[in-house]
Amino acid sequence: MDIKFYEQEKVFKLDTNNTSYLIGIVDDENYIGHIYYGKKIDDYDLKYLLRIKEYPFVPSTHNREKVAFLDSLPTEFSTHGIGDYRDDAIAIETLGGHTAMQLGYVSHNIYGGKPVLEGLPSTFGTEEECITLEVLCKDKILNLNVTLIYTAFKDVDVITRSVRVTNEGSEAIYLTKIISACLDMDNNDYDLITLNGAWARERHIQRRPVGFGIQGASSMRGESGHQNHPFLALLTKNADQDKGEVYGFNFIYSGNFVATVEMAQYENIRTVIGINPYDFKWKLEAGTSFQAPEAVLVYSDEGIGGMTRNFHDLYRKHLLRGEYKNKRRPILINNWEATYFDFNTDKLLGIAKEAASLGIEMLVMDDGWFGTRNDDNCALGDWVVNEDKLPGGLKYLVDEVNRLGMKFGIWFEPEMVSLNSDLYRAHPDWAMAVPGRTASLSRNQYVLDLTRKDVIEYIYESVSAILRSANIEYVKWDMNRALSDIGSVGLPADRQGEIYHRYVLGVYELQDRLTKEFPHLLLENCSGGGARFDPGMLYYSPQIWCSDDTDAIERLEIQEGTAMIYPLSTMGAHVSDCPNHAVGRVTPFKTRGYVALAGTFGYELDVTKIPAEDRAMIPEQVKMYHKYNDLIRTGDYYRLASSAQNHRLDCWQIVSKDKTESLITCIQVLHNVNCKSRKLRVKGLEPTKRYTVEGTDGTFSGSTLMYSGILLENPWGDFKGRLIYIREC
Ligand code: GLA
C-alpha cells in the first residue's frame, strides 16, 4: 500500500497490493481528473488517459467550448450546473438561489492511518494498516472547500472514499446533493449487479447489462430497505465467481442512498454512490462543515469471489467492533416464531429449560414483553415490563434463565411509537409528521423524531434502564417501518431538508452510546427482517437479522446475496419450525441446521413442541456449530453453485486462511432423477497439500480436489443437505 504525489506531473497514485488508483490535476483551473482504477500498474505518468488533447477546446487554451470539455472529462467529483451533464456528485444552492459550482485543486495531505468520521460509522485502521490522502478542492467564488478523502489499505484491495464540505464563506449555503464517491470509466461492456427484493425476499442478486442512461439502486425509505441495497458491482461480461474484472461499491450508511451507473453519450460510465438527494437540503452556516459517509471501493480481477473475499476481510478486520468481533456467538433460541405475543414467564422458562438441556446457550425474549403489547397494534414506546405476563418482573425471569446456565437477550423497537401508547398520548409531537397533516401509519405505528435531543434521551433512558435492571447480555434492535411524512417540530423551516440524515445520525448516536455503556452486550440489528442489513449498522452490531423468511430454501438466495458482501458471521440465521411460517414449506431439520450454520446459528421455534426426532438432533447441531464456527467465521468464502441459477443445487465453501481445513455445504433443492451423482470442483485449497475428505477413504492432493473434483451423490428427495469436511493430513 502506498500513496504518492508526483509534483511535476501533478498526479496522485494510490496503490493497494493488487490495485492502483490514479488522479490527475489538469488545466490552469486545476480540474481533478480521474485517470485510472483497476489492476496494479507500475507507471504514473498517464495523464494522456484523460484525453485532454482530444478535446479541441480545453478551457485555458480556448474557452469557446468549456461545456464540451466538462461533459467528457473523466472526473473525480463532478459539480452541478456548469456543463457536465452527467450525474453530479455535489450540488448547492446559495441564498441568492443559484446552484452552479466549480471545483479546483488547492492542496493535499498524505498521512498514515485514517480519520474517524465524526458521528458516522466508518472503517478503521492503524498507521501500519492504511494510508490516507486528503485532496482539498475549492470553489473560489462560493468560498466552499470540498475535501476528497481516500484511504488505501494494506491487507485488502480496498480504497475507501468520503468527502467533507466546509463553508468558508460569510453566509450560509445549502448543500442539496453530496455523493461520497464518483468514478468515471470507459465502458468495457460491463454488466451491473444490484441486490434487490422485498420483505422476506431480501438481497436477491440481479445481473443485467449496463445500458444508456442511469440505472442502479436507491432508497427513499429512510433506511437501506428490503427492496434495494447500498451496493452495486460493475463486472466484465466474462466475470463469474473465479475470473473477470469486478468493481464493487458499498456505502457505509443506513439511510436514503443512491448507487447508480450512468452510461453517457460517449459510452463513458459514471458510477456514483452516496446519500440520496431526495428531500435532502442541508444548511451549511458560514464556518461549518458537513461530513459525508464513507463509500468502499473494491477492485478484483479474480471475479465476484475475489471481490467478496476483499469485502469480508475488510469488514471483519476494519469495521466490526466490540467483544464479539472475533468471537463465537452464543447459540440462541428466540421465542418469536415459537409464541408470537402469547407468552409468559412459565412458558419462556419451559422453553429455556428444554433448550438448556439440549445445549442452547441463550434465550431471547422477542416482541410483547412491555406495556399492553399483546399484538402489534399498540404500546411501542412504553418500555415498561408487563408484569401480568412476567410476574416477578424481568429480573426474576433473567435470574432463572441464568440459573439454567443460559444467557438472556431481549427485543426492542426503540425508534417507534404506537398510535395506541402512553408515549404517543403524552407526546404526540414526538412522532414524525407534517404539521396539519395526519401522518401515514404502518403496522399501526409512527416513527419517532430522532432529530430531537429530548426524544433521543427518552429512548436511551428507556432502553438502558431495562438493560441495567437485569443481567441482559443481548439486544435485538428492531425497526419495523420505513419513514414517511417527514416533518419535525424541532427544526426550523430551512432545516426540514436535514431530517432524513439527522434521523440516521440519531440512530448511530443511540447505538454508539449503548455499546459504550454496555461494552459486553451483543447487539443484533433487525428491520422487519433484513431491511437494515448494511455496513453502517455493522459498525455497531456484529450481526444483523437477515430476513423474516426463515425457510431454509428461501434463505439460500437471501444468504447468497448477503454473503456476496458480508461475512457469514454477520448474518442472523435460525432453524425454525415446519411448515415454515412464511412460505409453508416442509424441509428436513438437518437441512435447516446446515443453512443456519452459514450464519450466526440459533433456533426460532418452541423446542418443547417440535417433533421428538427433530429435538433429538439439536445436541448434534450444537456440536456441529462448535466444531465449525471458528472456520466459518474466519475463513475465505467460495461459492460453488447457486440454486438461483441452476434451480437444483446450492453449494458454498469455507477455506481456512492457512488452507488446512475446509467445509463445503451442499443443499440439493430439487432431486435430479437422471443423475446419480455429480462432480464438484472444490476451490481455494493448496494444490500441493494432501487432504482427507471426511466420510471417504484415502487422501487427495489439493490439485485433485480442485481440478478433478469430488463425486457428490445425489440423494433421493428434495431439500436434502450435507456437509463435506476436508482436512490437511
Ligand atoms: C420483526 C422482526 C421479527 C420479530 C418481529 C416482532 O418483523 O424481524 O423477527 O422480532 O418484528 O414484532
Work out the helix count.
14
- The end-to-end distance, rounded to whole angstroms, is 35 Å
User: Approximately what portion of the residues adopt beta-strand conformation?
Assistant: 25-35%
User: How many distinct folded domains?
Assistant: 3
CATH architect. name of the largest domain: Distorted Sandwich
Superfamily (CATH H level) name of the largest domain: alpha-galactosidase from lactobacil brevis
Low-confidence stretches: none
CATH topology type of the largest domain: Beta-galactosidase, Chain A, domain 5
Shape estimate = globular
pLDDT averaged over residues? 97
Structural class: alpha+beta
* Helix coverage percent: 10-25%
Bound small molecules, deduplicated: alpha-D-galactopyranose
- What radius of gyration results from the CA coordinates? 27 Å
Number of strands: 39
The largest pleated sheet is described as: 10 strands, antiparallel
CATH structural class of the largest domain:
Mainly Beta
Describe the structure.
This protein has three domains: 2-318, Beta-galactosidase, Chain A, domain 5 (Distorted Sandwich); 332-632, TIM Barrel (Alpha-Beta Barrel); 640-728, Sandwich (Immunoglobulin-like). The protein is 21% helix and 31% strand. The chain contains 14 helices and 39 strands. Strands 6, 7, 8, 9, 11, 12, 14, 15, 19 and 20 form a ten-stranded antiparallel beta sheet that branches. A nine-stranded parallel beta sheet has the order 29-28-27-26-23-22-21-31-30. A hairpin with a 4-residue loop joins strand 8 (144-153) and strand 9. The longest helix has 23 residues, at 612-634. 52% of the residues are buried. The mean pLDDT is 97. It binds alpha-D-galactopyranose (GLA).
